[in-house]
């Protein structure tokens, strides 16, 4: 979330700021919390992609009244089906959410509010526990791969890379994704595919307001442009250094660099 743009977007109806800690990097939370304070707004973080990411030593999901983490299989800590967690220090939210996750039912069996079936099942929890043991190692490797990518493709004209692992002491990034902004994105994707390299376009290149069936009428040219030029490079625990090097060489080849 671009903190500079927030104040312009606040209206008398605004109640909440919800920063998304995208790609495993925490937004500029000092500015966001200052603005929230100034306008009396609550902050809830979408930390679905950011378990373990930090800003000034503080973890994603711990800044506002509440945050969420996704354990969807594509996430750095993923289970084999759907799963997630809500983080909060607010006792009221904790108690309500705990009821809502189980049909509004408390441990004594009394149902006091309407709720959902959002329990994390035991099998998924066991899988998460198993992978969690190696979580720091996994993040370390992802940061290593990000460094290899940076060293391999930085300096290509028009190609914008994520910040490097040590470029900003305020941020500890976990690289849920390595998302680059590139000219001729769709052509690059096809070129890489023909070289045997799979890449992904986050959310199919569309932002939520572009799904007109949902009733949105706004246009957001800045965001839409970012979605049209962004590409996720391969980043997983089985990719080797040589394979990352091959991806980098192919990208350089595409741009004749
Ligand atoms: C930023 C962000 N928010 C929310 C979600 C939704 O998470 P889940 O699929 O676990 O509901 C995702 C997952 O794709 C995400 O990346």
TrEMBL record:
This protein's superkingdom? Bacteria
This one is known as: UDP-4-amino-4-deoxy-L-arabinose--oxoglutarate aminotransferase (EC)
EC number per UniProt:
2.6.1.-
Task: Report keywords, A-Z.
Answer: Aminotransferase, Transferase
Q: Taxonomic lineage of this organism? A: Bacteria, Pseudomonadati, Pseudomonadota, Gammaproteobacteria, sulfur-oxidizing symbionts
């Amino acid at each position: 979330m671009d903190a500079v743009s927030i104040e312009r977007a606040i209206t008398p109806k605004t109640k909440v700021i919800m920063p998304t800690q995208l790609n495993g990097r925490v937004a500029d939370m000092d500015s966001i919390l200052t603005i929230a304070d100034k306008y009396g707004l609550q902050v809830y973080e979408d930390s679905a992609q950011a378990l373990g990411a930090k800003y000034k030593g503080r973890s994603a999901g711990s800044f506002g009244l509440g945050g969420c983490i996704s354990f969807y299989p594509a996430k750095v800590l993923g289970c084999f089906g759907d799963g997630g967690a809500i983080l909060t220090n607010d006792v009221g939210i904790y108690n309500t959410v705990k009821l809502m996750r189980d049909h509004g039912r408390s441990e004594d069996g009394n149902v006091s509010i309407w709720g959902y079936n959002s329990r994390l099942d035991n099998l998924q929890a066991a899988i998460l526990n198993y992978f969690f043991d190696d979580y720091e190692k996994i993040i370390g490797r992802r940061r290593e791969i990000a460094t290899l990518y940076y060293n391999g493709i930085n300096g290509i004209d028009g190609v914008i890379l994520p910040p490097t692992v040590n470029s900003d002491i305020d941020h500890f990034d976990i690289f849920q994704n390595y998302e680059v902004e590139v000219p001729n994105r769709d052509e690059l994707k096809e070129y890489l595919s023909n070289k045997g390299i799979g890449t992904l376009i986050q959310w199919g290149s569309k932002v939520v307001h572009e799904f007109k069936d949902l009733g949105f009428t706004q246009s957001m040219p800045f965001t839409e442009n970012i979605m049209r030029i962004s590409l996720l490079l391969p980043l997983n625990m089985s990719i080797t250094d040589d394979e990352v090097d091959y991806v980098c060489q192919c990208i350089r080849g595409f741009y004749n660099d």
